[in-house]
Amino acid sequence: MSLTAQPTLPSPGAEEQAHSQQLCALLNQHMAARGGTLSFAEYMHEALYAPGLGYYSAGLRKLGAQGDFITAPELSPLFAYGLARQAAAVLAALPDGVILEFGAGSGKLAADLLAELERLGQLPSQYWILEISPDLRQRQRETLQRQVPHLLSRIDWLERLPDVPLTGVIVANEVLDAMPVQCFTVDADGQLWERRVTRQERGYVWCQMPAHLALQQAVAHLALALPAPYHSELNPALAAWIQALSDSLAAGLVLLIDYGFPRREYYHPQRDQGTLMCHYRHHAHGDPFWYPGLQDLTAHVDFTAVAEAAVTAGLQVAGYTTQAYFLLDTGLQERLSHGDPEDYASHLQFSQQVQKLIMPHEMGELFKVMGLSRHLEIPLCGFSHDQCHRL
Fold this sequence. Notes:
Layout lengths: L13 H20 L3 E3 H10 L22 H4 L1 H17 L4 E5 L5 H13 L6 E4 L3 H14 L7 E4 L7 E8 L8 E5 L5 E9 L2 E8 L2 H9 L8 E5 L3 H11 E13 L1 H4 L10 E4 L2 E3 L10 E3 L2 E2 H10 L3 E7 H7 L2 H6 L6 H15 L8 E8 L17
Parallel strand pairs: 2-3, 2-5, 3-4, 5-10, 10-14
Antiparallel strand pairs: 1-7, 6-7, 6-9, 7-8, 10-16, 11-12, 11-13, 15-16
Helix pairs in contact: 4-5, 4-11, 5-6, 8-10
């Protein structure tokens, strides 16, 4: 565990602490094998994805009121409604198209998407879920069995991207923020260092090593004058992941929804502590070494880097906008008008959900939607307020 005290966080139970100790033992083995330190990307990967022990691969409750955070699909079906409207237009243009969802969480988005697409008469021929967590797969099955049992024959789970490129829609909601990041520091003298992880008697701590060539080149590619001192991060696996998406898409649209910024905002001089954030039982904090395996670790998304990787991979950047604009442009207000204003409780609940999804101080501005496409010659209603110029 961490040397940094976090007195405001709820205390994990004995079972949770024992689980974290098992993961720490694994981390210590990896650390010893690498000379006493790990890159933060290595640490984050194990903390999140170590088989049976990492945050996303173990059987810990993560989503919803009893978990650590709430995503937009968990908050309201209105989120899926907007995505479905955009997906339906693509499926109408590409007969027999499929939908592939990355990391489907509780299965709520898949269930709501399928229900809305059925209402619109544009069901995909198949709905694939790429999910590495056995625990989450089981939760997804239960959700889908409960909400859309008659559509289960269209749903299948994958362990990797399909070998044959698909035609249709790929959805990745809050996937990029959970990809392991590499951390760096520009010190007061302007020298670049890699921030790594080492272990002391009472827990894990940061340490620094001179930046290796790949990190030097990646930071230089930002083409920004960073102030000193300055802490931030990069996603070293982003380009390869986008290339894999490109290789898996014959024709259609990729929808990436996540919190982040264009590059000049991501690496703004005032954001000198980076964007690394941890989540435990609806508490957000900045200590990634607090009980590894029990908390979510995330970093915001550099959407300029996503766009660059997409172009290099042969995809078209079809649009970039805020979540608020995307949902409004895909008919959120129209959906609200279908409700009964005399049903005060329902109307109030929907209004509160809308506030969360679109208001600037909630999810509306921080969350962005990016569309990447190939061989798709149709207008995309979700990007009527396109902001690609900000990239």
